[in-house]
Amino acid sequence: MNLDFAPEHYAFLEEVERFLDEHDDPEVFDVSRENMAQVVDTPKRREFMRRVGDRQWLGMTWPREWGGQEADGTYDYLLNEALAARGGPQIGKGVGIIAKTLLAHGSIRLKEEFLPKILRNEVEFAIGYSEPEAGSDAASMRLRATRSAGGWVLNGQKTWTTSAHFAEWYWVGARTDPEAPKHHGITLFLVPLDHPGITVREIRTMGDERTNDVFFDDVLVSDEYVVGEVGRGFQYISQALDLERFTMFAFSPLRQRCDVLREYVRTAEVDSRPLAADPVVRRHIAWLETEAEVARLLGLRVVAASAKDGPPPTTEASEYKLYATEFSKRLADASMDIGAPGTQLRVHTAEAPMSGRAESTYRYTVLDTIGGGTSEVQKNIIARRKLGLPRSF
Q1: How high is the pLDDT of residue 309?
Q2: What are the Cα distances from residue 277, in Å, to 270, 280, 286?
């Protein structure tokens, strides 16, 4: 596997970096929001992503007939990593999940309605898979969709829907056949979030971010907004989650957190002795740097696998997501330990080690191991699909 990029890839990355330098704005780029920096939740962030769309950088891998350039996936990867490195909004759900599923399975009507808006960044989506009784097990969802004249009536609840309080459309899975086996009988819908039967209630996270419970009360959805075939939603969700596990958990923030810790160790002193001279600390930093390189290479394996014809790189995406997010927790633990008691001070506290980044990272990284499927879910995917192990009972 060739892990190097072509000259045209490097030229594109240079162009992206110049663009980001020209549009640098602390209200758009904020590394202290950690992984949640990707969310396009303010007018300034939406305007910035509109400008990215104006450069024709959104949907570069799409077919030309739908506004794409039929470029290889390396361009999406480089753009997303450059945005993530600065704590900026990323290509995320619209381009990386919704559009790719619509291109593969959506009707002509859905493509014509949504794909141009996604390219221009004129629409934001929330994703509704998790439920109170199902957690990260999408196959266990219970939100009911009952057949009605010309459509479906949805009743039930979703939870941990991060963007529901500002997005326009809800990409939601519901059970349309309660008698079907667990992994069947689920259908994907696109639902406007301003529907009068939808109620959004705030949940505050330990990372100081907002997510939401979403309640459905007789929400009528037209057949026109069914994504793909009725009853095949779980298969579509599984494919989309492969994309989410990679695009929503970029490597660049991990690299940046490593750099912050290493710079602190290089300059700090304990009892008038350089912290960098401590052999235990040196060994710990060396191990973390090694793990960071492993995470980077696992990510590049996903990029390489995506470039091949065939199904999405399911196990590669799960391996990357599992390793990268668990490494992120270990890095956060190390930052707290090495920075000592001062790391308990809140982020942006000037006198705190690393300006309080260790404290915010410690809180955020727990969330990363849950979104896109928990670490336990990733282990099960790898065990079954790559190692051929039987399902547990």
Answers
A1: 61
A2: 10, 9, 13
Across the range 279-285, mean pLDDT stands at: 96
Q: Alpha-carbon distance 274 to 295, whole Å? A: 29
With beta carbons less than 8 A apart as the criterion, state whether 151 and 221 touch.
Answer: yes
**Alpha-carbon distance values, 79 to 66, 133, 239, 387 (Å):** 20, 37, 22, 33
pLDDT higher than 70, residue 311: no
Residue 298 CB contacts under 8 Å (≥ 6 apart), including other chains: 316, 319, 320, 323, 324
Of 326, 331, 356, nearest to 342 by C-alpha is: 356
Read off the pLDDT of each residue in 120-126 and give the average, rounded to a whole number. Answer: 93
Residue ranges of the alpha helices (H) in 23-98? 43-54, 74-85, 92-93
- Based on its alpha-carbon atoms, the radius of gyration of the chain, rounded to whole angstroms, reads 22
Alpha-carbon 270 to chain mean position: 38
Task: Enumerate domains of the chain plus CATH numbers.
Answer: 7-123 (1.10.540.10), 127-231 (2.40.110.10), 251-386 (1.20.140.10)
Return the residue matching tokens 């690299």.
255
Residue whose token pair is 């957690």: 135
